[in-house]
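Give me the fold.
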Amino acid sequence: MNKLKYALIGCGRISKWHVEAVANNSDDMVMVGACDIVKESAVEKAEIYRSFIKDGEVKTYNDYKEMLEKEDIDIVSIATESGYHPEIAIYCMNKGKHVIVEKPMALSTKDADDMIETARRNNVKLCVSHQNRFNKVIQQLRSAVEGDRFGRLVNSMASIRWNRNMGYYEQAPWRGTWELDGGTLMNQCIHDIDLLQWMMGGEVESVYSQTGNYLRDIAAEDFGAIVIRFKNGAVGIIEGSACVYPKNLEETLSIFGEKGAVVIGGLAVNRIETWRFADGLDNEEKILKQQEGDPDTVYGHGHTPLFKDMIEAIKNNREPLISGVEGKKGMEIILAAYKSQKTGMPVKFPMGEFSTLEMKEANIRVR
């Protein structure tokens, strides 16, 4: 197969890691286009690519539809504001392009389903960028789950104790809005919610949530708590905050079962803190000592293997590890949490259609 021709749509905060992932997969992929409504941002990302690939020629655009018409493109990644993901992804897939879309894939269950169906109808691949699934220790944990080393799963917890001050929201006014973002659960916590449901079996029975807006002058929540009952009987607990003083404290995933206990922390859920199993196959002390250090940022190192997996999915005509169906699962739990906050009741699955827009009239301010 010739190298896949790649283009980036949306050149904001996260897009640098997409560009690096393309450069790191240069044996199979070449960047040909970058698009952003702020042309300077597209130019900046093209220059970042050329800093890795010296002879790379990347055309820059303000209009992604024009870019798709003028350039020969096989695959795009979409890193725009969250609320625009479905429209852009569906347009690209209808043009026969494979798509990697940043999290969350959409802000409504209907839009997510439409994206999944569009990929199927056009026989293209849709991947959602939950890059932390590719962390080495997360892959190690997944192998333990698949190997039934925990025995019966009992409970799990994801703690995202972060700080996002008003400067963060003022830097990009779409953040914290119901139309384009959602709150802390949808923006900051979705990676860990995805990991938790992936480890616990993914089949949800019900969701109950309490959320609130305590400190930040935004429409959506700056703190949220979720309790998930899975169909296998296990319980998941999520604690997600943007209000921790004065800076990020931790991002931790804990899994507990009949015969095992694992806690993974670090800057980007990348370091094992506890690794204990009844089968005695591992030496916990040795595992803890042999770990790598933290990455430079909370984004970790997962984008490169995520892009590699997408390349392999296209080559071998299989689904990527984080397909549209997989990408919807964590997002749907968060939408159920919003619905639970709005109604004051647990939400049974299947939950039906729901959107962040339905929260616009809900009063979640705690003053």
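The CA atoms of residues 48 and 295 lie 19 Å apart.
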